[in-house]
Specification:
single chain, alpha/beta, Rossmann fold, 2 domains, 4-stranded antiparallel beta sheet, binds iron/sulfur cluster
Amino acid sequence: MSKVLLEVQDLKMHFPVKEGILLRTSKYNKAVDGISLEIAPGETLGLVGESGCGKSTLGRCIARLYKPTSGSIKFEGEEISLLGANALSAYRRHIQMIFQDPMESLNSRHTVAEIIEEPLIVQNMGDTAWRAKRVKELLDIVGLPARSVSRYPFEFSGGQRQRIGIARSIALNPKLIICDEPVSALDVSIQSQILNLLVDLQKEFNLSYLFIAHDLAVVKHISDRIAIMYLGKIVETGDSQTIYRNAQHPYTQSLISAIPMPDPHRKVTRQLIIGDVPSPIAPPPGCNFHPRCPRAIERCSVDVPQLSASKADSTGLVSCHLVD
Ligand code: SF4
């Protein structure tokens, strides 16, 4: 088997923007604009960026909830970006998603048993008795009592609801789970419990994760490697420790400077990023971070920097003229 579980090459997802009385497409929202990445079996890749940078769209393209505009997505060496509905069904056994808000992602009119059993029914697995046993087994794996089966999502706390979502996501023994901000809506005290559960499940089932978050502090403890995304593009990648110790890109540096330090004696100068993320419909020319970059030089508003080898990490990449 390939050492690479998932390989994404130059992936683009451009949504048409319709305008005028005739609703003609005159512009495109370039939510994902030429992304390449790899994930190995059992590995966690953290994908970090501000809201609106396209990270959730990228996750949905990989899960094939969206059909990408162009580019390649290979899963275990097989191209899946162009698969039709029938072939997609088999692929979805191997890739699952966990969403940010379990209250929205779980059907409130279904019992917990119905919610967790649904993917097993869709994939035609087992008979009723086998599925009922499997649902209880999954509840036990995620730390919920078997009596939960007949209850409804609104009867649970936010953390418990996310456990139900996780039970559903592992029901088919997937190889890759796309975790789309799975702890962002939870209290800080509950966040670490869910993160620990995800780490335990990864060890037990050799799962790979694409872990999407807007907060670098959250991905720090769970990721082997980290990719930083800005306005539809990846601007820096590297192993988790090196990114935290020696980030090269000014955007990554400012995200890291915003993480609260547990050691009050360790001083880090906060590097504020001014303004909001520009619209992906009309991204700035040159380096698309230049209107907000505290270190921008003249060249930055004209030339597009390319991802090239990072000086900090032999496997890392960074796109910035200052580290060319
Ligand atoms: Fe800043 Fe220029 Fe580097 Fe872009 S290329 S991150 S604007 S210094």
